[in-house]
Amino acid sequence: MGKLVDLQNESDIRGVAIDTQEDQANLTVTAVREIAVGIVNWLHEKGIKDKLTIGVGRDSRLSGPKLQEALIEVLTSYDVEVYDFGLATTPALFMSTQFSQFSCDAGIMLTASHLPYYYNGVKVFSQKGGAEKEDIAYILTHTESSEHFGAGTVTKADLLTVYANDLVEKIRTASKKKQEKPLNGFKIVVDAGNGAGGFFAEKVLQPLGADTSGSQFLAPDGNFPNHVPNPDNKEAMQSIQKAVLANQADLGVIFDTDVDRSAVVTKSGDVLNRNNLIAVLSRITLNEHSGTSIVTNSPTSDHLKVFIEALGGKQVRYISGYRNVINKAQDLNQEGVDSQLAIETSGHAAFKENYFLDDGAYVIAKILMLLPELQAEGKTLESLIADLKQPLETQEVRFKLEADDYRALGEQVIEQIADIDIFGWEVDPENEEGIRFRLSQPYGQGWFLLRMSLHEPLLVLQVENDEAGHILPVLKKMQQFLNNYPDVNQEKLVPLIQSQ
Question: What distance in Å separates the CA atoms of residue 285 and residue 325, rounded to the nearest whole number?
Fold first, then answer.
């Protein structure tokens, strides 16, 4: 088993929790017990010296119950008052630090988002927000046992109902007519992907009057037998599309495993994720906060920038990672630049009005607040982004970096491709991650971005073009360039070129 610090994944902790033929578990009960001590030490280092109150929850993963039991056992040995929330969501765990009936000093969520069933992870929140990279590093390197103060307490509590009721009241308050059931007459299908989001149908939509018949995969099942619980996954989105059309629903809602991400499908079957979701939320935000800056990650379409600027806003493209875009938005606000929304193409979206918490359920709540008004005006969700131009062709290719120091290799490739001299390729200076090129004739009209993956030993290439037939020439030029780097595996690229 590797070192505890190897479990750090930016501002999260992730690892293999169930042995497989390929991988031995490293996020074990023993590791989680050490992490629990590190969290206690971290909270004390943050200045919380009195008796701690900590909430613990988990998503539907098979390894969740035993890891949660280990966490609670250690925390109570340090005289911590523990709330055992059982099945929960990541945003709800943060809100346990804000809701007065809990007032937790910290929330701990066991989840590995959309990763395969054998993974698990730990997300940590204080009352000020999510743990940063440096906080996770501290937790994983300060696991020495301090003096035990005795036996704490464990209280089982229903966090999801409290959290859901809060969302319901926010949606009712936002309704122009202040109706108790503003969604009366709407049919809304929910796909929870067998994660923790199944509560949304019964506890949020139904009290607001919505018909949720036709919803699917609401029951928690850590085997994830139906599809990957990921709104950024093609098969998952096809599944919710099919459900919306088959049930003639007004809206489809899909969550990832721990409900910090979401996407929607409209009545006509149009998918609102990635750039489209950013555009919808940008319009909503700019209607409420004229001229605000929208922080996104780097792989967004050029058309999104045009769309946001036409609404009077400003797009700030920043480096990938949900904590990175959130922190950038918070920094802008501290500098006096109003920034109300931070959002990634993956679906992580955080509003200033909501603690800058990346909360998939709150994203849906913002859309639901608008739905009755749109219907009354004879408008659709699609009408909100009718002015957003769509690229004609898109392609993503991932290159595995097979060098021991894969990061150095990836950075070398990015640095040296900047010197490439190809007519029709121009480096885009408005970019802070990897390298982005603007494409013009004879390479059509578009762009491509080459960047390091945030979590894996990969280079990621994303290409968009507004003219047909121009992505293949870009891929061929990229192949020629990468032939100079034998440790960059092109196995994903070769079939794309050969199939043309």
Answer: 16
Query: pLDDT digit string (tens) for 99-133?
Result: 999 999 999 999 999 999 999 999 999 999 999 99
The Cα-based distances of 271 to 251, 395, 450 in angstroms read 10, 17, 25
What single letter denotes the amino acid at residue 254? I
For the stretch 280-321, pLDDT in tens is 999 999 999 999 999 999 999 999 999 999 999 999 999 999
Cβ pair 326, 10 in contact under 8 A: no
Q: What tens digit of pLDDT does each residue of 34-89 get?
A: 999 999 999 999 988 778 999 999 999 999 999 999 999 999 999 999 999 999 99
Asked if 17 and 25 touch (Cβ cutoff 8 Å), the reply is yes
Residues 6+ apart with CB under 8 A from 118: 16, 17, 18, 19, 20, 23, 25, 63
Q: How far apart are CA 181 and CA 179, in angstroms?
A: 5
Give the span between the Cα atoms of 466 and 195, in whole angstroms: 37
